[in-house]
Structure formats: C-alpha cells, structure tokens
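Hey all, sorry for the wall of text incoming. These are the two entities for the joint prediction.
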Amino acid sequence: MHMKAYHIIFSLLLLTLAACKSEDALENPDNIPGLGGDTWPPGPIDVWINDSLTTPLNVAVKYKWDQGELELNKTLVPPREEKVIPVLSTIKQVWIKNYDLVAGEYFMRKYCPKFFVLVGSASWNPDGTVILGTAEGGRRIVLYDLNGFRTKNMPGYVPEDSATVKEMFHTIEHEFGHILHQNVMYPLEYKRISVGRYTSNWNNVSDEDARRDGFITAYAMSAPDEDFVEMIATMLVEGKQGINHILDNITGNGPNGTTPEQARAILRQKEAMVVKYFADTWKIDFYNLQTRTRASVEALIR
Amino acid sequence: MKRVLLYTMAAFLVLASCSKKDDPVFDESPDVRLNKVLAEYQAALAGAPNGWNAELRTANGSLYHFHFGFNDANRVQMYADFDTLTASVRKESSFRLKALQQPALLFDTYSYVHILADPDATVNGGEFGLGLSSDFEFSLDTLAADSIKLTGRFNGSKMILRKASAQDLQAWQNGQWKNALLFESISALILNYFKRLNVGGKAYEISLNAARREITFTWRDGGGIPRQHTTTYSFSGNNVQLDTPLTDGGTTISTLSNLSWNAGTSSFQVNVNGTQAASIAGAIAPMIPDLNAPTRWWQYMADREYFWTSFFGFHVNGVDDAFKIRSIPGLYALVFVPRFGSEQGVIYDLAAFTSVSGSNLNLLFGAAFRPPVFTTDGRVIFRYFGTLGDVPPEHEEKYINTASLLNSTSGFYLVQTSETSYDMVSATDAKAWITWLR
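and here's what came out:
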C-alpha cells in the first residue's frame, strides 16, 4: 500500500515537472544591441587598418573610445583622427618591418600583439608620473599620448617633439620585450646583476642617477623584468652610438655608491645578456636589429 | 488520514507549480526596447536640419556652447565656444549611440568636446590628470520634441541639446561667436599685466581667468573706497555675458559685445550692455596696489627659512619663459630664498637655479641681492650683490637676463593670486612678470 502511494506521488511529481516546462522562444540574438562589438560605416581609417594590419598580420586596432578597454578611474581622451594613420604607419615602419627583416616574416605574425588600443592623452598617475603604454598577456598593447605625436614631416614639428616620438617607440619596444620574455624567460643570472637595488621609489630617481647605479633608466630600477625590457627598448631606440654616449656620460658615484667604472661594467654586462638572449632564444642578430631600428627612428626626427 | 493529507499537499503542489504567468511589466523585451530607444535618438539627432545647439555645464560649473550636426553615418560636425579657432572652424569627428547601462551618446574620436576633458592641462588650462572636469560620454536622460537632456557618465557634467534654427547655425558660420571669443585673447594681445575697462569716463581694472571663465573687476567707488567684483561669465552669440552683473552706484555692467582689436592703440573697442562704447587697454601699474604684499611675500619665507618657487621664470612681452630657463638640463625651478646667507656683513637674498636629486634641492648657480627695499607705494626693489656658483657659458645669457631683470631699479609690484601664490610684476612697464608658488 505504501508502495502504491509513493507511485502516485511520484507520478504527480513528474506531472509537476512536465507541467512547469515553460519554454519562452529565444529572441533573435541579432537584436541584442552591441553584441559582437560596435559597428559603424567604415571610413578611410577603418579601411587603412584593415588593409595594412588586420589582413597581413591579424592585428586589430581600436581607435574609437571604449571605456571598457581602459582604466575606469582615469581621465583620458580618444585620439585625434588625423593622428591614427600616421602613428600606425610609423609603427609598422620602425617596429614591425625591422623585426620582419631580421627575424623573418613569420616571427611577427606569430608574436606580434594582436590587439592595439589607442588613446589620445597620456595617463596621469596621482604622483604626477604618466603612463605611456601598457601590455597585457602578450596580446593587448595600449598606447597613450597619440595627440602629442609629431614627426619631422608633420606641420608644426619642433625638435622637442622628437622626445615624444622616441618615447612612443621606446614604449612599443618595451612592451614587446615583455611579450618576448613572457614567452621564453631570460636567463635568471640577469636578475642577480642588480639584486637588492630594485625599488618602488624609482620615480624619485633621475635617469642620470639611475645610470650611475647601473640602470639604463630610472624605470629600470622598478623590477628585474622592467630592467630587462628597458635595456632592450633603450638600445633599440637610441642605437649603438646613443648607448655609448649614455655610458660615456656617467660621471660620479651612484646613490648606492657604484663607481662610474662599475656602473659601465654592469650596463655592458646587461647589454651582452640581452644580445645573447636574442641570439639563443629567437635567433635574432640584435645589433642588426638595433642598427635598422635606430635608422628608422632617425628618419622620423632628423 | 495521513495519506489524504499527503495527496492534498501533492495536489496543491501541482496546482501551484503550474502558474506559468510571466507577467512582464513591459510588453516587449529589454533588447527590443533598447534598440527602439537608440533608433529614436538616432532619428532625432540626425533629423534636425540645422543641427543642435548645445549647452554644456562642466562639473566645475563653467558653461560652454556647441553646435552639433549629426548624420546617419556616425559622423558629427561641430563648433564650440572654447576659443576663436573652435568657434570658427567646423570640425568633423565620430560619434555613436551605445547601450551602456543606459542609452548613451559617445563622442568617440577627438573633437571640441574633448578639449574640455583633456587631462593634458596645456590643452585647456585645467589640472593635469583632470582637465576641466568635463565629459564626452553622456547618458541620454530624456528626449522631448526639440530638446535632449544628457548627463556626463564620468564627471557628471550636464548637457542640453536644443534644435537649432538656420540663424543659430549662421551665427557660428558668419563669425559672431568668434568675435565674442576674442575676449579671451585679451591676455595674449594686451602685453601688460594690468588691464582696464574704460567706460563712461570711469576705469575698472579687470583680471581674467579664462580656464575657469571667471573675471574680477577692481575699482574705487564714488566715495573712493576700493571695490571688487568677481563673477563667472559665458558667451552667447556676440555677447560676453556676466553671470552676476557688476553694479557701481548707478552703473551696471552685464554684457560686453562687438569686440574689435586695434593694433595701433593696442586696445580693444567694445560695447558695454549692447550700446555704450568702451575700451579695454593695458596699464603699467595696479589701480589699487596691495601696499603690504611685497613685505608679506618676503617675510613669509624669511620667517620659515624656506623659498618661493617659479617653474617657468619670467614672462616678458607676451612670451612665457622668455629667458628659456626650462632649457637648462636638469633644472627643477628658479627659487627665491630670502636671507640665504651672509657675506661681508651683508645678509643677502638668493634667486637660485636649482636641480633636484632624491628629495634634495641642489643649487646650480644663483644671483645674490642685498636686503630688498620696500617702497611706500607697494613695490619691492632688489639690488644685485653678486653671483653664487659657476654659471656655465651656455647658460650665461639666461642667467644674466633673469638677474638683470630682477635688478631693475623701478622694482616690482606683488599681486597675491591665491593663498599660496603671488605674481611679481615689473613696475617699469608691467610687461614682465613671474609667478611665485609656495
């Protein structure tokens, strides 16, 4: 008897479940606004990006404002439209083309970050420093301060603008350096060269003082990874002569008591390890890349 | 009994669980409604034949005007009353309507709207990292027949769009707004620090803060008593509109219009309240000097054994950092140290070029001055005493220009511009000045 009662209850329950199957027809997902990203009638900039970057390199560029890609607490502005193509084409010229020439055409297709976000202004930190670029996960690079970008071929160029141009490529080479070492780590000995001298207080140190202590820039003092990629970026953008010039101008002892001779030796050791890392890991002749990159930079500012 | 209870409960369960009523509050899904709202806004924006007049009040409270012409291909053309360029050159950029948490209007490439929000203070005179606290991403609050209300999504500035008439658009195209905006060129065209509005035989000293759209009038009233009036202003067509009119006895000033610059006399012709002819010209001395300012300025740092800081040195004849001191590598600032040291029994002040390492200020080189002379008419006179440190030959000119200007025999007026800052203005012709910060 008990058994039967359970049967009845069980079938009632089944009935309940079946009865409650309430199927609302799914709406056509095409009607969801903004699904799959924003679209707009393509203009000349969109066509250029598609032909020059997306088709050959599978790189997407977001130049229109999208707060979701950026820090939510910062005051930022989108780039001027007239800056987008000049900046992207110089990036192709200085960075992508030179890697293509030195490392073969497949290297960049594989490792080139696939997504660029462009911002018109720099990103100001509360302590007064500015961020000019960030990289994430080997995929995404955010470039700031496009509106300040002016090469010698643009109207209104003054020699001081060369600093912004160099800074832009310094940023790109810096971030790409991160992508390389995030794929294959550099030798751990590098981290031991300046061990104990890395500091979060780097922004209170001038580049001059940092160099006296064996760091190529003040930012290189912030962490070994930054040190490594700052070496890459500075060497590429300043060129061999520029590096020699920087080293020759180290005079006086550093804040940590490093003598100029020691500082120069440390920087030369770091340089050698960067060159070896490129040769061993990526089969890239770094000095060849350096010569070409510096020549491309000079073509923009001299 | 127990079983009956069980069945009854089960039956209730069945009945209750079968309530399939969905009862949506709205008769369409959120996506359908959102698309509809966005389409409505798009139709409204692109459907105004003469575009839209916009009033934007930033979070700082300053009022700016725009004229927008939207189309159906995500492009917008605009004028703005930011400066004479934005008021006369129509600029095209991109916009889009997007479903964020609310339907939103985004100006998504750089346009005149972004100038106000640019974190680079050299663009708009605001603060670094903040700009003028404005927005370019707006939520669409309400859509009426011929107006749209919007609220900035980042700083909360307010914008109202109203359908424009053909005349509204013409007012931009034929240069009326540009003419009014000439008002903000006063500081660039009149080289004197002090400027006066002369109207009906009476003079009012004016000082302008273009970034905050604020103007201060200083004058003596009929009884000779010093008066001051500070108000924000905005532009409308050909007018500069004072938000709070100035009243001086029977005189009221509420608008300035019809500006024109006369290079021959270095002055502006202008109409007050629409009709009364007036002029704005430079002056070489303040109308009401702050007699104690020089001693107050000097004593403040003497008491604290500290220094006044100037990052850009002297502004001379319309040129910022006229002596190019910023081109000295590693320069932190030009600082003024009262009672820096003593030599041959003279306790001297020092105007020092300095650099910074860590938290230390280093003296590069500097000019020493004997104790200053404070005149009864509110000036301070510095008297050169000597040079401290070695001046590298390539910076000699910058040093000598700065030191000899400081040494000028007529001295300087001091104008306190805020609790922590003074402008020190050459009494020779008021065409050179330097800003000291605490």
